[in-house]
Amino acid sequence: MTRRTVRAVNQSYHVPVQTAASSTASTSAMNPPTTGRSAFQLFLTERYSDLRQQYPLMNVNALVSLAAKEWSELAEPWRLPYEIRAAEDSIQGLAIGREAQTGNPSTSAADIKPEDFTKPFCDFLTANPTIFHTVDHFKSKLNKAGYKELPSRDNWTGKIEAGGKYYTTRNGSAIIAFQVGKAYKPGNGVAMIAGHIDALTARLKPVSQKPNTHGYLQLGVAQYAGALNETWWDRDLSVGGKVIVRDEETGKTTAKLVKLDWPIARIPTLAPHFGVGMMGKNNAETEAVPIIGLDNSDLESTATENASPVAPLGGAGSFASKQPPKLVKLIAGELGIKNYSSILSWELELFDHAPATVGGMDKEFIFAGRIDDKLCSWAALEALLLANSSDDDGIIKLVALFDDEEIGSLLRQGARGNFLPGTIERTVEALATEKTPYGPGVLGQTYAKSFLVSSDVTHAAHPNFPATNLAGHSPRLNVGVALCVDGSGHMTTDSVSTSILNRVAELGGAVNQTHMIRNDSRSGGTVGPMLSSAMGVRASDAGIPQLSMHSIRATTGALDPGLGVKFYKSFLDNFEKVDAEWETQE
Prior knowledge:
Keywords: Aminopeptidase, DNA-binding, Hydrolase, Metal-binding, Metalloprotease, Nucleus, Protease, Zinc
Number of domains: 3
CATH superfamily of the largest domain: Zn peptidases
Radius of gyration: 26 Å
GO molecular function, one term: zinc ion binding
CATH architecture of the largest domain: 3-Layer(aba) Sandwich
Helix content: 25-40%
Structural class: alpha/beta
Protein name: HMG box domain-containing protein
Cofactor: Zn(2+)
């Protein structure tokens, strides 16, 4: 199939697109059939293959979207969006599956174009506001890429083999995905990237219903980490998360995900006319209570003290009876639940409803919520999906994404738990042979040959507060990942790990920056030290810079998601080679 095309740039996200004017249609691919969903899928399949040849490094999601866009705009503008989405999902699964089988071996990190990842990252942030939605999204991508789920309750012996791709989850809020090299032997190392998915938020209290106050319906919420700070005031907030439901017919209990697609809550500031500054210290319990509706029924003339009480939803004492009735009805309606008593519990949280967007005169920024840290976690997983696979790969390539980092990582789905070392140990055990049986010796070898990249966002140089920047150690946006150093051991980077990752960057055509705080500043922490010390593995902290960390809405560079993918992919692809270059093994 021959076609003359030009590469245009979508001005919103810098994603290459093909327009009707930039292509000559000499074949049926650009003159698609006009009836039937099967014909639509046939068109997408053929057009996707052409686009893959044109843009070999573009993200699969972007390629599929381009093909669907051509059909909807040039062939059938009346076609309903859900039909387009269904066909997109179908061909996307086929496309990703095919590429997963080959490992896309011709793609090197040096060839990755960071601008191709801007729109997919923004779309991801907007569509997955809670940690549960994020893990569910990652599972979907892994499934489409040919990864097999390993339930934690199953025996993994006989289910893992060299050349295979797998993932496992915990609590629906932490996930570990890995691929085993085709030439793997027990005792070989693991190239691992670890980060966290959780972000500052406000979670609904177990009893979230509050008394009517001057006609306002309010919602009882609790801080998660440092949420409900001044950046949360006067924001359009919505609700989403996990709902535990018991099926009345089967008696089985399951978890369902929900998110409301419009803002239902707001934390109003007090006007400055009252002489109270809103940017200082405010009481998070009494002054940061979201309003979610109005109820002025107490003003109605028919209201009397003898009015019959309204029966609580779900029955007295039920979980639903302790929540705002209108909210229960909204959540139940979204999930198709008819009996409110079947809602046993939930983990719902507030989130900034505004979508992630690009900004700046040249659209060089991303403005979004939850950048810390869905940015590094997304980039790491994308890197794993794009990681090369060859017959010579002798290591395990792994990405571990945790919950609870913002509150100390102390829960079982956090990095201080046994999720990562337990997964590695079970994997090594499943791959053991009679010649090399599983035991402390093989496991010790594995850890000694392994390396951990702790991927967490770091502070970019701030233009308005230059005194907070340390000269020569303040990374910039849209330049590259920063190796984070801390003299007090809050980060894992040392001379050995710096040398290894600088070599990784060199092989991948990436640029590494350096971040270190001033002596008069307080350092944050990452999952790096706790994981490195628990397993005894070499490690370095390498994160993507951002502004406004722990704000409800932060800033990073439009190229930074792709620069993260570029670096993390180079690490997964090249660590085995770089490790072999060392004369002295430590």
